[in-house]
Structures are given as C-alpha cells and as structure tokens.
Design brief:
This protein has 7 helices and 2 strands; from the N terminus they run H-H-H-H-H-H-E-E-H. The protein has 160 residues and is mostly helical. A two-stranded antiparallel ribbon has the order 1-2.
C-alpha cells in the first residue's frame, strides 16, 4: 500500500461518514463505520484529528483572505467565516461539535483558537444577524450557538 492509497482511503471514509451525518442529521459516527475507522486511522482520535484538519485547512484559507482585507470589524469577519463554513460543510462541523469533549480534538481546537487570537487579536465573537426570506433581519440560533462555542474556546485558551 502506498501513502497515496492510504490518503485516498482515509479521505473516502471521512467523506462517507460526513455524508451520512449530513444526510441523517445524527451527529454520532454510525457504529457500522467504527471498525473501519479504527483499522484505517489507527484509532478514533486520529479520525477526529483528520476531520479537524479538514476544517482547519478550509478555515485557514478563508482567514488568510480576511487578513488581507484587514476589515475594521475583524470579529464579524471571523464569525462570517465560521457561519459560511458551517453552511458548506454541515456534517463536518456537526461531527466536530458533537465530539468536542474528546481530549485529542479539544487540544487541537484549542491550538487553532490560540493561533486565531494571536493572528487577529479578537477575543470575543459578535452575534451575526441573518436575512430571512421575507427580507427581515434575525439572529440564527445555530449561529448564536456557534458564536458561544467560539467565545468559550477563546476564553479557555486566553486563560490557559
């Protein structure tokens, strides 16, 4: 087995699990995939870290663009990135949020938030209003939850 074959198998398995999470709305990894995850990734922690890497890579690419823009309100820009990525990859964020208490994943996400705070200076995330179909502004409960999660992570890494 070559390294590329392993990368493709892992990517295919991660995509399969994320598609099922998105399709079913259940955040828990389906039990039918646990044995394959253990065999392919060497453990569940490594699987979660691969999922985190996918999120982090997409986030970093968007963050780079935001830093180049240098907006007056960086916190709003960061919240927008989170919301956009969650909409593009709902299964991925659902998986990461569900297993956020996993020690390996929590450590990786804390490192990401430390880097975010260092790069942007943002220490709190604002509420993000969204436009409803009728044209009125409202706050998305999911967006509010995501902002709360980001605030908790930032506070945790600042006080660590």
């Amino acid at each position: 087995m070559t390294g590329w074959q392993q990368v493709h198998r892992r990517t295919d398995l991660l995509n399969l699990v994320l598609d099922e999470i998105t399709g079913t709305g259940s955040a828990q990894v389906p039990a039918v995939h646990i044995a394959a995850i253990e065999a392919e990734f060497g453990g569940f922690d490594e699987f979660l870290l691969a999922a985190h890497q996918r999120w982090s890579t997409a986030y970093a690419a968007r963050l780079d663009g935001l830093l180049e823009e240098a907006p007056d309100d960086m916190a709003t820009g960061l919240a927008r990135i989170c919301a956009e990525l969650r909409a593009l990859r709902p299964g991925l964020r659902t998986l990461l949020d569900y297993y956020s208490d996993n020690p390996a994943l929590a450590a990786a996400e804390d490192r990401q938030w430390r880097q975010l705070v260092a790069a942007t200076g943002v220490t709190t995330m604002p509420a993000m209003p969204v436009m409803r179909e009728d044209g009125r502004r409202t706050h998305c409960p999911l967006g509010q939850w995501l902002i709360g999660m980001a605030d908790r992570r930032i506070r945790r890494v600042l006080h660590a």
